[in-house]
Specification:
The protein is an alpha/beta fold. Helix 3 packs antiparallel against helix 4 and helix 3 packs antiparallel against helix 7. The chain folds into 2 domains: 253 residues, 4-Layer Sandwich (Metallo-beta-lactamase, Chain A), CATH 3.60.15.10; 179 residues, Rossmann fold (3-Layer(aba) Sandwich). Helix content is 34%, strand content 21%. Helix 13 links the parallel strand 20 and strand 21. It is built from 13 helices and 22 strands. The strands form 4 sheets. A 7-stranded mixed β-sheet has the order 6-5-4-3-2-1-22. Bound molecules: zinc ion. Zinc ion binds next to loops. GO terms for molecular function: exonuclease activity; RNA endonuclease activity. Keywords: Exonuclease, Hydrolase, Nuclease.
């Protein structure tokens, strides 16, 4: 029984892990690298000889977005994912096709890795699974999904093979978020494959509620001073969480009531969330639907008027790390020079991203920053990051193996320093490995 990272080993990259169990090859997750482009963004799929099953933990870009490409090569491998994830996955992949086409039309270089027809093909290949239900794969291995918190439809993947229980945490959150309940875990496992996004010590986090307090004060200050606020979000998860929170703060009169603008993808995932998600109460759901309809506007296709308007407003736009040419990127470039405006990040920023660069430049007191071909003046001091992450914080990452008591602990999905830090902290309690990409380890 072995595991080989094809992406996501000692990094947050194109997360994809090949498990080999008595000749059965199971691929867990099929992501693309959040910053790299084209073929470079794919996992190392040339190393796959054969695939029997593909399992997907959740619908974030770095876990899902190479699925149609991989599934084309192994069309007979069924794809397993949580029932609640299926609609989201298809919607997000259709959007990825549009993004690739747009880029290709612009630069003529970006490959279109898959088309709408190939995404539609997946409808037949995806087998939606109920949480907690066990499924047998050819009587060789049993699999089950556990709710992972994190975002709607997210799952930790449990496998049992010859009496050995293995859990892949996926992106996991052990605490309650505004719109998502915490993860649920199996009792015990022999092998834990854990994410380690927030494994660095400084991510000993403030509670979500103290972050809401801090954000609400900052938002109030900027809006009352006549500024506009950009909140870059990941369309799935942070998008819903941010809008839900802003609506709640407006209703409680903690922040001024101003228009909230979002983009089509955040809005469309929010409506899937509001119509399909069973983990929030009927009362909260109704409140969310109504407040959303009353206060949230989808940004129009021609954005000039909105971009240059000086009216106080909140912009909840993807992409969360300011990927080039996205709405959040375009607005960030326009807003950075204005001393009244603000950019409040909502979650993890990869060190290669423009989001990270802006935060660093603000810290260093730099006056300008290079974004794409343009040098942009930094005229505002209102740049901050708030932790509304859907990931386990440092303490939770330590709790996770302590609760599951595995004989073997394997870390993936984190910056190298963060994973090393976790391993050092737990070195006397567990046997720990941190495989690099293409390094095979025993499970
Ligand atoms: Zn995720």
């Amino acid at each position: 029984m072995t595991l080989t990272p094809l992406g996501g080993g000692r990094e947050i990259g194109a997360n994809s892990y090949l498990l080999s169990l008595d000749g059965k090859n199971i691929l867990i997750d099929a992501g693309r690298h959040p910053v790299k482009e084209g073929y470079e963004s794919l996992p190392e799929i040339d190393k796959i000889n054969d695939l029997d099953v593909i399992m997907i933990s959740h619908s974030h870009y770095d876990h899902l977005s190479s699925l149609p490409y991989i599934s084309q090569r192994w069309p007979n491998a069924p794809i397993l994912m949580a029932q609640e994830n299926k609609g989201l996955a298809l919607r997000i992949l259709q959007n990825s096709v549009e993004v690739m086409k747009k880029k290709n039309a612009k630069d003529g270089v970006e490959p279109i890795l898959y088309n709408h027809g190939e995404v539609n093909e997946l409808k037949r290949r995806i087998y939606p699974m109920e949480y907690f239900q066990r499924y047998s794969i050819d009587d060789v291995v049993d699999v089950a999904l556990y709710p992972a918190g994190h975002v709607m439809g997210a799952a930790s993947i449990f496998l049992e093979h010859r009496g050995r229980r293995i859990l892949y945490s996926g992106d996991i959150s052990l605490s309650q978020q505004l719109t998502i309940p915490p993860a649920q875990l199996p009792k015990k496992v022999e092998t834990l494959i854990s994410e380690g996004t927030y494994g660095a010590k400084e991510n000993q986090l403030l509670t979500r509620y103290s972050e809401i307090e801090r954000l609400s004060k900052s938002v109030k200050r900027v809006l009352e001073n006549g500024g506009r606020i950009l909140m870059p979000v990941f369309a799935l998860g942070r998008g819903q969480e941010a809008i839900y929170m802003l609506l709640m703060l407006m209703e409680k009169k903690k922040i001024p009531s101003v228009p909230i603008y979002t983009n089509g993808m955040v809005a469309s995932l929010s409506s899937l969330y509001m119509s399909n998600y069973e983990s929030i109460s009927e009362k909260d759901r109704k409140w969310f639907i109504k407040s959303f309809q009353n206060n949230v506007t989808v940004a129009p296709k021609s954005i000039e008027r909105l971009l240059f308007s000086r009216e106080p407003a909140l912009f909840v736009f993807s992409a969360g790390m300011l990927v080039e040419d996205t709405l959040s990127y375009i607005f960030a470039k326009q807003m950075l020079p204005n001393s009244k405006d603000a950019i409040f990040f909502m979650g993890y920023q990869s060190p290669e991203s423009d989001g990270y660069k802006i935060l660093q430049a603000n810290k260093n007191g730099d006056e300008r920053i290079q974004m794409g071909d343009d040098s942009i003046e930094i005229g505002t001091k209102n740049i901050d990051i708030f932790n509304f992450s859907g990931h386990a914080d440092y303490q939770e990452l330590l709790d996770l193996p302590r609760r599951l008591q595995p004989e073997k602990l394997i870390y993936v999905h984190g910056d190298e320093a963060a994973l090393e830090n976790l391993a050092e902290e737990l070195q006397y309690e567990f046997e720990i490995q941190i495989p690099s990409n293409l390094q095979t380890v025993e499970l």
